[in-house]
Amino acid sequence: MPGIARLRLLSIVPLILAVAASTAAPAEKDDWIDLTNLDSWRKPDMLWMLADSVAVDAEKPKLLSAKAGKSILVNGAKGRARDLLSQRAFGDVEVHVEFLIPKGSNSGVKLQGLYEIQILDSFGVKEPKGSDCGGIYPRAEFKPKYRYIDKGVPPLVNACKKPGEWQTLDIVFQAPRFDADGKKTANARFVKVTFNGRVIHDNVEAATPTGHAWRRKESAKGPLLLQGDHGPVAFRNVRVRPREIVREKEGTSK
């Protein structure tokens, strides 16, 4: 090969390799971990199914109808299935979840399986409570009958869409801190929660777990929970990113 042609070829090779690397999308882009599948959850209830499209059932508007596929998690034809608990445990974490519910339905996203952001058909509610969609769920007791023992933390604004529309939750969560002896030194914290593009919580402390779990032992890490036993719900684009990775990239301290 002539010398000049060989030099030109050598100069082009790095460019070709760079283009190939940029177009080869990794399985976990930007360190996000995809959970929109059944393998990512602990022994998922067989009622959970995967779909490619979901909508409110035209004949039964309090249920969902789904077309089988692989991109959407749906809690069964009757809209009742055991909660999903992730195989992996997370501490400080970012969570992205898109959900769809029919009229009157109820679900939730629980960080470490303990700290809940409520999902509820709250469209049109003028003064949302902690028990409305986007709220940090109130503490509660089961006996003698189910009741709230505090008000939780209501969302700053009601950003809830109509039933049957896809909605988006983005959560930045800081896990509780413990010293070497296991004593808690700092409470869990919802650093920021964004609902359908609007900030609904900003640096809110969670002194205890929420709901009836408020007496349960806290830890530095725990699973993500998607609630499936309270009503029909579909989830898509479920992904998480450990905050340690984000801090490292941003050059901030832990």
List keywords for this structure.
single chain, 16 strands, 2 helices, 254 residues, four-stranded antiparallel beta sheet, eight-stranded antiparallel beta sheet, disordered N terminus, mainly beta
Question: What is shown here, in short?
Answer:
With 254 residues, the protein is mostly beta strands. 11% of the residues lie in helices and 38% in strands. It has a single domain, classed as Jelly Rolls.
Question: Overview of this structure, please?
Answer:
The protein has helices at residues 3-23, 243-250, and strands at residues 33-34, 49-56, 64-74, 84-90, 93-100, 106-111, 115-120, 140-141, 147-148, 167-174, 177-178, 184-186, 188-195, 198-206, 222-226, 234-242. With 254 residues, it is mainly beta. The strands form 4 sheets. Strands 1, 2, 3, 5, 10, 13, 14 and 16 form an 8-stranded antiparallel beta sheet that branches. Strands 4-15-6-7 form a 4-stranded antiparallel beta sheet, with no helix packed on it. The chain has a two-stranded antiparallel ribbon with strand order 8-9. The longest helix has 21 residues, at 3-23. The chain starts with a helix and ends with a helix. Residues 3-28 have low confidence and may be disordered.
